[in-house]
């Protein structure tokens, strides 16, 4: 509901005063024209049983007991773009919000809760969507709906979705966290960013689709994302796209799929004619059940690159119909791969014969078999895994050896080791 133009609301000393913008307002602004200027086009907040929106001068422009009737008018009032700041609180919305190009909607993190009671969370107001920022919100939607339902978009670029939690309130594994469908034969999507997202309890966590013979969704970035308890974690679907189009050059880094008993596929790349060059760096599926796939790649996805992570850990849970996947394991914070080996050392003091040494195995699973070899006469007394962080992951091999003769003082004695993932 829009307030009348000649009525304002001023907060001071714990009091709320309604006043007319007559001589009082003009007098204040004559003395200091910027006295009420705010850093946002609109600031949305709760005032007892009402939701309010103040403009950049501190005037209350919209108020209602339905937050949708406060936030959406703010978006509509910014045809050329602007910033809407939503303060901490729980906002109940009867229906979805339309996103508009060049409009930013920013909350204060998980303490800014948008609770949608009947519909999905966000749609696009037009077929073209660009230069949007949605940040710092906890988004809750009913069963069967989508947190972001961006279907029917023909051009989508330079949009950022950051620091968001998206939850299906019914926890029944229906609906979708983020659904993007580039439509029409010439639809395009590029240079969009999805960062620091948590998505819970949907049928699909993130679904990216092209729907047209020349539609494409290319060179988008997905970074630091956790998808929990969804039937499908991340889906790339090139349905309808012809040769040279579809989903190409998208980058996924540190995307984790926390599986559920009903999870079927962590990362699903399906359909189309000529998808390719999508990259997955340090991506993981964890706690998956035996019947699920970590990754499923159809034959239309060419030169998919997997760097690190654990998607190839269990071959029987990795399906690559195209057989054109490039896997690169590398040494970094920890080594990614199925095997590792190296040399540890102990330093003699001339008298000690028994030594205990901790060896980080550097593997992405702690279900490993270890082999120890000595360079001289002695016995391997104990070999076992230890959680040294501690974080529930057994990343260290602890070895106890006893030599027949004490190594000389200062002598560096090698212990050769290898470890291999067994399941």
Structure write-up:
The strands form 8 sheets. This protein has a 16-stranded mixed sheet that branches. The chain has a 7-stranded parallel sheet with strand order 14-17-20-23-26-30-33, with no helix packed on it. It has 3 domains: 1-101, no CATH class; 120-328; 339-421. With 423 residues, the protein is mainly beta. The protein is built from 2 helices and 40 strands. Helices cover 4% and strands 52% of the residues. The longest helix has 9 residues, at 23-31.
Defining traits:
seven-stranded parallel β-sheet; 2 helices; mainly beta; 3 domains; 52% strand; 423 residues; 40 strands
Number of strands: 40
Coarse morphology: elongated
Q: How many individual domains?
A: 3
Largest sheet geometry: 16 strands, mixed
Helix-strand layout with pairing:
Layout: E1 7-12, E2 15-20, H1 23-31, E3 42-47, E4 50-55, E5 60-64, H2 68-76, E6 82-86, E7 89-93, E8 97-99, E9 103-106, E10 112-116, E11 122-124, E12 128-130, E13 133-141, E14 146-153, E15 155-157, E16 160-168, E17 176-183, E18 188-190, E19 193-200, E20 204-211, E21 216-218, E22 221-228, E23 232-237, E24 246-248, E25 251-258, E26 265-270, E27 275-276, E28 279-281, E29 284-286, E30 293-297, E31 301-302, E32 305-307, E33 318-320, E34 326-328, E35 339-347, E36 354-360, E37 368-374, E38 378-386, E39 396-403, E40 412-421
Parallel strand pairs: 3-6, 6-9, 7-10, 8-11, 9-13, 10-13, 12-15, 13-16, 14-17, 15-18, 16-19, 17-20, 18-21, 19-22, 20-23, 21-24, 22-25, 23-26, 25-28, 25-29, 26-30, 27-31, 28-32, 30-33, 32-34
Antiparallel strand pairs: 1-2, 3-4, 4-5, 35-40, 36-39, 37-40, 38-39
């Amino acid at each position: 509901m829009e307030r009348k133009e000649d009525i304002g609301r001023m907060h001071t000393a714990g009091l709320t005063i309604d006043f007319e913008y007559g001589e009082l307002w003009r007098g204040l602004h004559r003395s200091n024209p910027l006295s009420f200027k705010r850093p946002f086009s609109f600031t949305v907040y709760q005032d007892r049983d009402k939701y309010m929106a103040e403009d950049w001068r501190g005037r209350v422009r919209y108020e209602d007991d339905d937050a949708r009737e406060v936030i959406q008018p703010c978006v509509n009032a910014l045809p050329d773009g602007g910033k809407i700041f939503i303060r901490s609180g729980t906002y109940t919305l009867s229906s979805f919000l339309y996103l508009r190009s060049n409009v930013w909607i920013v909350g204060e993190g998980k303490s800014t809760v948008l609770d949608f009671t009947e519909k999905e969370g966000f749609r696009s107001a037009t077929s073209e969507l660009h230069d949007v920022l949605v940040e710092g919100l906890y988004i809750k939607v009913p069963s069967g709906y989508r947190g972001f339902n961006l279907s029917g978009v023909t051009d989508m670029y330079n949009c950022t979705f950051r620091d968001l939690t998206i939850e299906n309130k019914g926890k029944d594994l229906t609906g979708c966290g983020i659904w993007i469908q580039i439509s029409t034969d010439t639809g395009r999507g590029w240079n969009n960013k999805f960062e620091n997202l948590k998505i819970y309890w949907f049928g699909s966590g993130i679904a990216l689709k092209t729907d047209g013979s020349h539609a494409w969704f290319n060179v988008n970035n997905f970074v630091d994302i956790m998808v929990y308890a969804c039937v499908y974690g991340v889906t790339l679907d090139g349905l309808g796209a012809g040769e040279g189009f579809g989903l190409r050059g998208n980058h996924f880094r540190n995307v984790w799929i926390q599986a559920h008993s009903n999870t079927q596929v962590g990362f699903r790349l399906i359909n189309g004619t000529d998808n390719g060059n999508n990259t997955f760096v340090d991506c993981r599926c964890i706690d998956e059940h035996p019947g699920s796939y970590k990754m499923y790649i159809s034959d239309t996805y060419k030169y998919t690159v997997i760097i690190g992570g654990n998607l190839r850990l269990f071959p029987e849970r990795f399906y690559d119909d195209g057989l054109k996947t490039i896997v690169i394991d590398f040494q970094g914070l920890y080594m990614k791969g199925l095997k590792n080996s190296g040399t540890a050392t102990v330093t003699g003091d001339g008298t000690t014969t028994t030594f205990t040494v901790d060896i980080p195995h550097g593997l992405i699973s702690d279900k490993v078999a270890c082999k120890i070899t000595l360079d001289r006469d002695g016995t391997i007394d104990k070999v076992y895994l230890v959680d040294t962080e501690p974080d529930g992951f057994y990343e260290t091999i602890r070895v106890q050896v006893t030599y027949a003769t004490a190594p000389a003082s200062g002598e560096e004695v090698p212990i050769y080791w290898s470890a291999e993932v067994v399941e």
